[in-house]
């Protein structure tokens, strides 16, 4: 007979218990926080970049005007560190989200849009974790790029099945939920040694969630106007926001999204 503890170890090494547990937590509290599971293990395909896969969870609010495309990441006794090249921790409210809008019998908006969105949080484009391979694409960038593509695919699918006079507007957010402890590392850029590339002084602060914002795709955004010629504007247009949320703070996160 196989060892039961060994079999349990196999189960617990997968990410499925976190996904199932989070799904249960959300549905069990729907009456209080107003969110529910719309899909679990939802198959998707994005013909633009020829990628495909399964969305762990799609979580939507009662009004059906906001959906979270969620990727669950279980890690063991690990901190994810986000770099903040300044000594103060600024809270940002803007985020890039997908917006689908139906007006006067037609789709009037269908693209990524930067807009104010609570809860406010730290925003950063730099991430590191213990044991990260410096020669490969960092894990969070890979996951973020796939998540952004899956959100686009879901929005296209629901463009045909959901948008109507009854549901005229829908916002989609990219969200990674993890068991990792989230920390922000703050420091002065002037304290970085150019001799060995290290920071001489820094402080670490625990955070419940963070806006991880950078260019997750090499695709030229269709929303970018030909009149935009400034490099900073082009770079900003190609960015996307991925919310990274510690699993213990997920209910706090969705409660503040309702405000």
Structure write-up:
This protein is an alpha/beta fold. It has one domain. The chain is 25% helix and 40% strand. The strands form 2 sheets. The chain has a 5-stranded mixed β-barrel with strand order 5-6-11-12-8.
Spatial order of the strands in the main sheet? Answer: 5-6-11-12-8
Low-confidence stretches: none
Provide a count of the helices.
6
SSE-based structural type: alpha/beta
How much helix, percentage-wise, in residues? 25-40%
- Whole-number average pLDDT? 91
| Element-by-element helix/strand order | HHHEEEEEEEHEEEEHEH
Strand content: 35-45%
Principal-axes geometry comes out as globular
Q: Can you summarize the main beta sheet?
A: 5 strands, mixed, barrel
The CA-CA distance between the termini, in Å, is: 53 Å
- Tally of structural domains: 1
**Record field, number of beta strands:** 12
């Amino acid at each position: 007979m196989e060892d039961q503890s060994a079999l349990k170890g196999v189960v617990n090494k997968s990410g499925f218990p976190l996904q199932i547990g989070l799904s249960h937590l959300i549905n069990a509290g729907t009456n209080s926080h107003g969110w529910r599971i719309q899909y679990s293990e939802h198959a998707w395909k994005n013909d633009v970049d020829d990628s495909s896969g399964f969305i762990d969870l799609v979580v939507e609010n009662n009004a059906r005007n906001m959906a979270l495309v969620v990727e669950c990441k279980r890690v063991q006794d690990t901190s994810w560190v986000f770099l903040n090249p300044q000594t103060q921790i600024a809270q940002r409210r803007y985020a890039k989200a997908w917006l689908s809008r139906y007006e006067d019998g037609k789709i009037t908006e269908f693209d990524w849009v930067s807009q104010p969105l609570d809860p406010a949080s730290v925003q950063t484009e730099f991430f590191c974790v213990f044991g990260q391979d410096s020669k490969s694409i960092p894990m969070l960038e890979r996951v973020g790029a796939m998540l952004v593509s899956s959100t686009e695919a879901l929005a296209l699918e629901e463009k045909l099945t959901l948008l109507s006079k009854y549901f005229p507007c829908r916002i989609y957010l990219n969200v990674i939920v993890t068991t990792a402890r989230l920390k922000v590392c703050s420091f002065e850029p002037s304290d970085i040694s150019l001799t060995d590339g290290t920071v001489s002084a820094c402080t670490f602060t625990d955070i419940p969630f963070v806006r991880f914002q950078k260019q997750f795709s090499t695709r030229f955004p269709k929303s970018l106007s030909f009149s935009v010629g400034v490099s900073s504007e082009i770079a900003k247009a190609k960015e996307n926001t991925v919310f990274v949320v510690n699993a213990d703070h997920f209910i706090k996160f969705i409660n503040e999204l309702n405000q």
